[in-house]
Fold each of these.
Amino acid sequence: MSDTVKKEKSMILQKEMIGGLFKELGNTKESGKKVVYTFVPGNLSELIRSFDMLPVYPEINALQSGMRKMSGDYIKEAEKWGHSEDVCTYVKCDIGMMLKGNIGPTGEKIPDPDLLLLSYTGCFTFLKWFENLEHLYPGVPVALIHTPYQENGEITAEMTDYMVKQLKNDVIPKMEKVSGQKFDPDKLKTILQHSADTEDLIAKIFDTTKNVPSPIDAYFAGVYYIGPINIGFRGTPEATEYYKELYKEILERVRLGLGPVTPEGEMEEEKYRLVVEGPPNWTSFREFWKLFYDMGAVIVSSSYTRVGGVYKNGFRHDPDRLLESLSEYCMGCYTNLNLNQRVDLLGEEIQEYKADGFLVNSIKSCNSFSAGQLLIMRTLEDKLEIPVGFIESDLVDPRYFSYSNIKNRLESFFQMLEQRKIMVD
Amino acid sequence: MKRFYLGVDLGSTTSKAIIINEKDEIVGRGITNTRANYRVAVEIAKLEAIFNARFYLLKKQLGEEIEKHPEFGKYIDDIEMAFQYLQFKKRSDIFHSALLETANQTYKDELKNNIIQIIENIFTKINPLLKTEFLEGSLASSNQFFRDIMSEKYNEEVEKLDKELFEPMMLVYDKSITPVENEMVDFDFKDLLDRSVALLKKKYSNYANKEEVSGSFNAEINILGGNYEKVSDSLKKHIDFIAEFEFHIANMVGTGYGRALLPFPEDSIKSEILCHAFGAHAVFPDTRTVLDIGGQDTKAIQVDKYGLVTSFNMNDRCAAGCGRYLGYIADEFSISLNELGPEALEAEKEVVICSTCTVFAGAEVRELLNVGEKRSNILAGLHKSIVMRAMSLIARSGGVKNEFTFTGGVARNQAVLKYVSQMVTDSYGSDIKINIHTDSIFMGALGGAMFARRASLKNNN
């Protein structure tokens, strides 16, 4: 029972944080706070916060609309406006939501942007997305950083320099203008220290899956765990507080030898441990999750929970290298890693977390995630001789989630793992 | 007691059943078309497999005797043929009554009487025709199902009628065929056997009485014609034995897209991907890549040396490029599925046809016919396009490694086979061994039966 109470504490904290943020967003007219629209990968939340501005993440709004079964209508609205069926469904959902009054997940209206900030250009769709937002919000300033791809699997000093220059010459002056505040390095330093603390905790939390049974599901529950940092709380004391609490709860689960919590209670038997690549489907998130926990499958690591930052490889925001560390963060985001880096990262985790299989959920409309996934899968299969599986769905377009087909493939995949276990035994 | 194991593969188009013995050898096969009532489809396939297995046991028991006396083999084959005929006849009689009943309920007065008379005429004509085709022709071994045979014969007759009668006759047919197909009909092996023996006796006594036989007569029939009574007597005790043999199915496994609906316990339901791979690997142990093209799924499967799946890839968004695509095309051309492949093989070239959508392909076909393209060339293009889609799935699943085995209902189509062999060789080299088996459609059921045997052994241990 005590476990349930503690579990609730982190959830209550998270709910309060998110509720508070949307309230603040609904109140910007009175408070005069400025609003920056930006994206999760390579986000500069710390910099935004240092100017006392509030971030809004359109793709988070889109996924929440998906979970609340509203994305279908929003997408229809965007298609009516002229977007083709093949356009990223996050974009269409977000634009549809804006066209329908921009009401956020808590029922409050999301304020219009005062600045559009694009700090990761690895996803070409982001550029096009902002072009559309410019049309929807004429006259709003746009700050855009070109983020070099880690083609050779490393961030060089030149790459960092190039990024820092863009921050200094373009982003910061625009932020100063929009917010009416001077850039304050000391303030940013404090914020980055909070970020580093939070990031330490997050790395530890996702590392608890090395326990058998794993105390958490690092994909389906994982998306809730990364919620606070992906919605703009990185760099705040509240975030550190939340992750401290969450880590404490998880450690208690480890101590008691408990498995992960699912929407239908605790998972009783851990039968398969998986590493999953790719974002989940949001429109049928619960059904999708259920297909796994019903079969006793727990995800011990997922690449998706790294979209807000790859901390496994040691990256932390550094209060002593302000703009350099922000730049490195942008360039270190998961989809900016080259395929070899992604293979290495996933491969390490498959081994470290003793995974029985590797599964790809490929997203129809997300090129930045999906490109190369088959190659990643093949390489891991050959290198580690691990059973692999491949399913396809979509982010928030309910038309592209075929329950029976996905179930059929997952059943085959799990039976494949089981057969292998029997043979190995 | 001898133990046997059953595998049932409930596919989208056909339902297959396989019975194996304790050495994983196939002893019985059964197949029927999948219909709305899955239970009936499965029971029919299963019953056919059990009957087939009894005949297998009979032949096995006779062993060398059959080699010494080819007339024994012929006699047993004939009995199996008569068996199929008698089962067909029983369902056909039910269908006959159902048609009359439907006509009675649907129409009135003169039209009704007219229709009833036509139905009677049709059956008076086709009954003896079907009997001859079953017992003396090749209908029993033609892989055609009740619905196919019936619709072909019925349509042939109805097409000759006046236009105003065509519609009501087809309506009566459509309303009656499905309930009849979904009805379970009981058969007793011993009863069928006695009636088959009697039927054959009549058939051969006719031959024996004929002084001259035509050139098409084969030697075995000649032997049997004169020796019929003798052969029948010497086999009687063996036949009685298998009729009374208690057939013990120790365990069974169901697979296929309709597997969740099978009346089997949960742990006896297996994914068709595992079953197809396991079956194909059992027949060709060096297989590392399996391609299965079924009714609505194409699966490219990689297996390890134990026959276990290491990865697989399936068509995701559309069933174009699967068996149903061919079925649709056959309908477009008003020819039977079995005729598609042979005609495609006569092509001079392959017309390029899109395979992303079955219905669109249909539109393309009409357009091509319109501009005067030869039917065989269009068919060749359609077959090629199916294989091209399958090749893309193979590539996605990791390519062809070592031996390649092609399974599923579509593997029976010679034109598909031709393009599969061609394209596998082109893409992966001419030293890749390509396996096709006459039982390719049964691989899923075979894998299921093998899993059933292993599960049973494990439980007993």
Amino acid sequence: MGTAKKEPLLRVVKHAELSTRQSIGLRVLAVVLALAVGGLFIALIGYNPFEIYATIVSGCFRSPMAIQATVKFCIPMCISALGVTLAFKMRFWNIGGEGQLIMGAVFASFFALFCSGMPHLLLLAVMFIAGFVGGGLWGLIPAACREKWGTNETLFTLMLNYIALYIVTFLRDGPWRDPEAAGFNKIARFAPKAMLDKVFGVHAGWIVMLILVVLVFLYLKKTKQGYEIGVVGESRDTARYAGINVRRVVLRTMFLSGGIAGIGGMVQATGSDITLSAGVAGGVGFTGIIIAWLAQLNPFVALIVSFAFSILVKGSSVVQSAYGLSTDCADILQGIILFFIMAMEFFIRYKLVFRGHREKLPVKTAADTDAASGEKEAEEK
Amino acid sequence: MKKILAFVCALAMMTALFAGCGNNNNEQPSNSGNEGGGAGIAVENIKVGVIHIGDPATGSGYSYTHDQGIVAMQQNLGLSDDQIVRKNNIDDADATAIENAMNECIEEGCNIIFATSWGYMDTCEALAAEHPDVFFSHGTGYKSNGTNFNNYFGRIYQARFLSGIAAGLKTQTNKIGYVSAQGSENGECTSGIDAFAMGVASVNPDAVVEVKVTNSWYDPEGEGQAAQALIDDGCDVIAQHCDTNNPQIKARDNNVWGVGYNSDMTAEVGDAVLTSVVWNWGAYYTTAVQNVINGTWVPGTNVENYFGSLADGLLDITALSPEAAEGTQDAIAIAEAAINDGSFDVFTGTYTDAAGNTIGCDGVMECNDGTTLEVDGTNYAAITKYYKNVVVK
């Protein structure tokens, strides 16, 4: 690399591909560091970090009820991660999982509220399809606009989240308001017929989630359409050259992506909330994005990462009441852990080079890098 | 390859979490049932769950007021800290979070759970059916099941009537502003406005009450703006049924006066607040938990709803500020005595004031649209019209 004179103090350089062991080492290190710094934070505010961590875990698994609740938190997170996985594979930056999930819930809720005369299973099937279509259409809008007018899909999908949220508020305060609520704004609780059945104490959404994990995996890995998504994602020009109808692939994939999120919304509204509320998504659409990235767009890994997240969420809730720890502290803890894991993803792909350092000794510069594997890499070079 | 790595990473994360499990101090979920079969539950076996919409640590406002009630109950009954399970910041629009919070209370062995926000009502109803041996007590709603799910609220309109007397005597412009969270279709807000307006009219027949609605239970900005608009319109006393003390701050900053709500707002705003309409939830929480201890309330048998009053100590107005008009204390005292002896309940009954006038509409309210409405405080939710001296802005 050039002379030291013009070199900036710090440069970001792409790594050579790290070995498996190095990558694993870095990731484990990230988790350990995250827990350590999180523990330091806990200690600073006057609690025993070991106790707090133990409570997080025990709070998730201390009873069948706790395990059921943990699984319940996992379901919408995992499903919305699966949804954005399809779009991200195509390099379509769908930040609208939240809105697509909400619209799925809205479409499904219509049938739950106004068509509850149907037989139970038929009603569930109709709501399931409605949820899929609702989310799918909400995903289709930004895709169509990008294909037609070249709009920015990141902003577009993001903004649609808020529109979806306010649609729920509008329905709650107006046309769908529970007439029995004496002037308060809420939507009625669904009839038992419109409730998703429980299997092993958790609503059947967990089965839907597992099936979707397998389906999305097979779709991406084994089908022509899944292959097309990958090609379009790598290069639209290549795809076009190969005779792929890019526009169709984009529209189809975004419909599926939104549709899956919509199923998540249906499952959440009919299985867990038993009503349509403004909190039906409650941010899982955004958490799903993080999960999909951490899982490197692999559906099975997404399932595991989602479960790890649900442990954090459920456990923090127990910690809050057991220790009187403010819920904000629990959020900070989650933030610290996320920060380290995301940061480590950066160091797995890139390294920092300080001015004056020769290219051969780059690994020393990345402070968080595992020193042992770093030396090994230097030797190999 | 990267996928496998990510898989392992996630696995590692979980293992790391499990690793902390060594010195596990988890409490075994104790039996939340009532073993005595009608004999109640010993004080040391009582565990109380509380679901808050906010964080009591903020030091004022709705959740703080409720939590002060819990603290008072704890002291009255001599419960230890670990007999109270608080669930804070539970969004009342997130049914899943509500259910999880209540289930965690049940897991930790709570015998009675107080759900303080209106939006928790439907979840209470569903969980009460699932857990027949746990009491669910829900504030401000209208549902109950008669066996293990009741409803608690109070005749806050009694305190509002008294505060109306203070406002009616103080105003010089004969225009009194009232910032309301919800419009006339909401009986809780509307009955409060009517009671306040009746209080005003009882001492000042010429004054009008100008109501401005924010359409939100919590809108700091909007509440302040509504108050400012009322002041600009000539109002010189600002009352409120909304969360923050911003209307009172606006009143003080414009050199006019106000009537606070929920907690004593003189503490933060100063003497411009003539008085505040307040809840003392501790009165109910103590009674309720005592009932469970005594065996007065046994799950599965009769459990009544609670609709507390001034006489019960559930609600009150705070001591008058030195800036209140002369004679306010005496006028309030007469009305208060009538309320406490049961002869007057704002919407029903009458009393005679110092000048010999008969005060009270006695069940038939003259509305501001020229019609009349049959009113009864115990059915406050049905009061969806405004008293004759109310003007909507």
